[in-house]
Amino acid sequence: MKLTIGHLYPDLLNLYGDRGNIQCMMKRLQWRGIEAETIEFEIQDEVDFSELDIVLLGGGSDREQMLVCERLKEIRDDFKAYVEDGGVVLAVCGGYQLLGTHYSTDQGVIEGLSIVDIYTEQGKDYRLIDNIVLESELSDMPVVGFENHGGRTYIKDQKPFGKVIYGSGNDGQSGYEGIIYKNVIGTYLHGPLLPKNPQICDYLLTKALERKYKKPIELAPLDDTEEREANTYIYQRFKGKVSRPQDQEQI
Predict the structure, then answer these.
(1) Is 48 helix (H, G, I), strand (E, B) or coil?
(2) pLDDT tens sequence across 213-235
(3) pTM beyond 0.90
(4) Catalytic pick from 7, 93, 149, 201?
(5) Which residue of 181, 185, 213, 220 shows the fewest CB atoms closer than 10 Å?
């Protein structure tokens, strides 16, 4: 078996160690004897989604998102068709925002892919910067990470990635973080996300393998002792604490 991972525009969208997510997926496949390949696409490259089993869309500054936005308009239909066909996507921070209809900023409106009916508005007072802990149905472990975003994302009636135990999440008010749509996870959690949350990584890998090979897949277990210990430490450190917006960094 083999999976091919497409990393879209890492030269522009790689603010928060997004390559760590790629490395985690590659290693967890290789440790199981599954062949893995990553293809990096620069802004001028043609993207053939039929060749990809997983797509990573990482985070970037508002300026870089503006640049990427123009290119994404050209591949929007193909990207949307890939998603609707069950294609696996991890979209982090700026990439998450680009899944929606638009992101309104002081510099103008960034048009999104309109893959999911969500939208983002620039926060007026402070950035949401802190560690974050979630409960998610995709993992029996807490989902942990770090968030740093000025945007407030409103997901309407979309399914959230998780319920916030500690941190701010999508908008600092709703109590939810990210979205799940088909085989897409959109999230503000970075640092990167997957090495800290091996069950989320294996969820994405399983979905990609099942889509490609059209049969149920049960991944061989790995020794995640160190990952679980790190996850438990983070969870215990922030469990029961309250993340207060007034403590966030001022813009």
Answers:
(1) coil
(2) 999 999 999 999 999 998 999 89
(3) yes
(4) 93
(5) 220
